[in-house]
TrEMBL record, chains A, B, C, D:
Membrane disposition: Multi-pass membrane protein
Residues annotated as transmembrane: 32-49, 61-80, 92-120, 157-178, 212-236
Protein name listed in UniProt: Ion transporter
Primary localisation category: membrane
């Protein structure tokens, strides 16, 4: 989630609106964000419930009304954001801006195309704003820790995934030949799907080998999957163990970040932010 | 499990009863606790067996009698505890007090409402007292070690769970759209349930994708689940590796705790507790 | 596998026979052990194949003959062992002696009781002798490494298992109540079986929740299982990481053990055992 | 993947052809390899699509033509390789040479034997050449890191696998006896297959225990599988943690390798290879 916010606008009321809508270092700003989060959750829950037939049969009209109400609200919010921001295009093409836009479109598009409205689940991505609001230093720090560890391991994980995909392709095709295109192994892509289901130890059982040779091959794949699962875990564990050690060298106050203004580097004993005076 | 016990009462017999019922540093106290544990196990087993129809048909009356017998016993014990403790309310609202109470209620409530009596499995939570009785220093230490490692990782694990839940919501909804509400993906909540079953690699197979697009999406989710499982493991491993190293600095006799009086800091060569003389 | 061998006998031919049968530091001794291993594998494979109906129908008589032949051979070998050993009872009641005995009994017992002969799979345990024969220092060292790491973690793992069993009991019973004894959750023990299948992420799908509440509870259990699986892995990883570090301090030649006489502490450059002159 | 290339040939045009076909340090050489990769992917995809009946019914003739076209191309390429290389036999019996050969054979063999043509998936192994072309130092380094960690753990993993296989054999046979050859446990090999499916937590559910004793035994196996999965993960994690630490001692520029001439030891600030001047 990028924290680079668009530049603030000029006129006074726009500036005030900007602080409320875009920032969260004032009481009004945080209330706005909290209300937004609740609205997002409610609108997503409404769509989910509507997809359940027994509920839809009874409360369908109400739920659709709720959905349109929130879509209207989000449209209004989106237009406001475009209005008060100094450079609307910069916002519109930022990651947050695109997510904001995409979370309105599906409901509107549903007038034209059935099914598309379920895409409003993209709205759930807006929930990631939660980290912006309750910016508890701890959470941000831990999230960054995980992301950093994964990033540092990304080449290892890519090499590992390439190896797994090759394995899965070869064994999937072998199974197609061995099971003779029967017992659910009706094509090579389907057999590869089975191999993925097996090597990841998910094992639905919708397709499973029946011939002795097939079951033997499957056993080999499973035991390999056993050893294979150890690799990504080992990579990430080693990375995190290293990162934890590195982190312990850095003075502890680097970990605490003000949850309002994000000022870092507080003393360990500090109870209030040295920049905005908010309780830490 | 909180170790903070309620204050002892005044009168002599109450004091003696208190030592037997609440504490386990006397022979009588430990015998009481051991008898209690056996009673708990027997009462839980009785309820379990009764739920098996073939057994219930034959021994139903006997098993129900056993259950009522133990419930009566536990009620008596609970009243005794309230009586001998100096501050009954403090005990009644402590964690152990609530568990003690909840383990009696279901049987009584079953007179009014069918099914509720199975809730007496809450009684199994009383088994956690086992750690109080056989307080083998080793076990307590190891338990604390695990709990500490998990606590230290709790923010990382929360961030991780939030990410998994968002992923599961988005992919679950996509699958609902892709599979067209068929093949078991009959609603968004159900599709999210499927996504959880898949990403955790449980894979019941009660719901599984049938369309090519659905199977492709499922494959992506499974491979992601593969990488994802590495994260919590990495977190806990790194934490424990760190804790193990930290622990090795602390002198070894800090690990041994007397299983009767919980006195810590025994010398490594000590065979008896320096406080109560119990064999370590 | 205990390496404590019974004391050698007195008379000359017994001594020679003892060296061949019990020890593996002579060419004859190793040939004997190798022949024994092949016999064990063949006898186990024969029983396995006989259990396959299509094979049993054709080659049943032959396979049964093979089994009786090997059982006779093993009986002879067992009697020989008793004869040449100085203290027959010590051998008979040692772990290896008991395994040797148990691997003969099932075939004989099958004359009296159907099914019992399949227990000759206990013979596979005799295969563990392989480590005695090809006692490649590397393998012994690595095996000991794993066992040591698991032993050091045994208390942590026990505490962990106790927690998992409590969790599984409570959630299993809840599911029995929630699903109303239907959809396969026909009794509490069966529901606990389901909970174990789920929390270990095996997920057969022979029993799976159908009600919304049941699926929600199952989702919680799965996500918990996700976090839970991290614990034993973390424990063992941390232990092994520690052991690896500790091992690297010890001079490297401690790792190499003579595969014939098991003499330890060879110099890193050594090509032959300092005790028996065998090639390392 | 062995990097040892056959010796270059003598005559001028052969030398030029050699550089294009076998090496990738010229623009022409890299273009050749890239074209080859695309051809491999296309030919594999063609075979996969043809195995899907609905696609095969419509585009079968076209897809078969595509396959024969690429097979012809690869045959031509293989002959070229034999021609321009100085020692054709050395190439023909190198790992890459054998893979190159095997990826042509299946299509030709399909004229004689049905099914054999699906073996052209061996062609996917040729994709491993990708690492040769885009020899991004990072990838090569990471791949080697994983391979090294796995190699260093190979004895531990072998011991572990031996233990798992013994466990699976013993429990599989027990289940065959316990379930009485019914409920899918129709033979010992099939029961062992079930045990592997269970202990690896794949859990298809095509075979699952029905009797109480069987489900109890299965529960024990699952809980053991739980603890067992921790072992390979622990091994690899510990190995990687150690390797990471070791790697951090080596100066960082050892990690960057020129993706054209593979020259190592670039300075961290270097933007171009010190040997061939290629952009790093």
């Amino acid at each position: 989630m990028p924290n680079r916010l668009p530049e603030p606008p000029q006129s006074a009321w726009k500036q005030r609106a900007y602080r409320v809508i875009f920032e969260s270092d004032t009481r009004a700003g945080r209330n706005f964000d909290a209300a937004l989060l609740i609205a997002i959750v409610l609108s997503v829950v409404a769509v989910m419930l509507e997809s359940v037939q027994s509920i839809s049969a009874r409360y369908g009209t109400f739920l659709r009304a709720v959905e349109w109400f929130f879509t209207g609200l989000f449209l209004l919010e989106y237009l406001m954001r475009l209005l008060v921001v100094r450079r609307p295009l910069t916002y519109a093409f930022s990651l947050l801006g695109i997510i904001d836009f995409l979370s309105i479109v599906p409901t509107l598009a549903s007038l034209l195309m059935f099914g598309s409205r379920y895409l409003i689940v993209i709205r759930t991505l807006r929930l990631l704003r939660v980290f912006r609001i309750f910016k508890l230093g701890q959470f941000v720090g831990e999230g960054e820790f995980i992301v950093t560890a994964l990033k540092a391991s990304r080449f290892k994980i890519l090499v590992f995934l390439a190896a797994v995909l090759t394995l899965v392709t070869v064994i999937g095709t072998l199974m197609y030949v061995v099971e003779g295109g029967q017992h659910g192994f009706s094509s090579i892509p389907k057999s590869i799907y089975w191999a993925i289901v097996t090597v990841t130890t998910v094992g639905y059982g919708d397709i499973s080998p029946v011939t002795i040779l097939g079951q033997t091959l499957a056993s080999v794949l499973m035991i390999m999957g056993y050893a294979i699962i150890a690799v990504p875990t080992g990579i990430v564990s080693a990375q995190m163990a290293g990162a934890t050690k590195a982190a312990s060298v850095i003075p502890p106050y680097k970990q605490v970040v003000c949850h309002v203004c994000q000022a870092p580097d507080h003393k360990p004993e500090a109870e209030y932010c040295w920049r905005c005076g908010e309780k830490l």
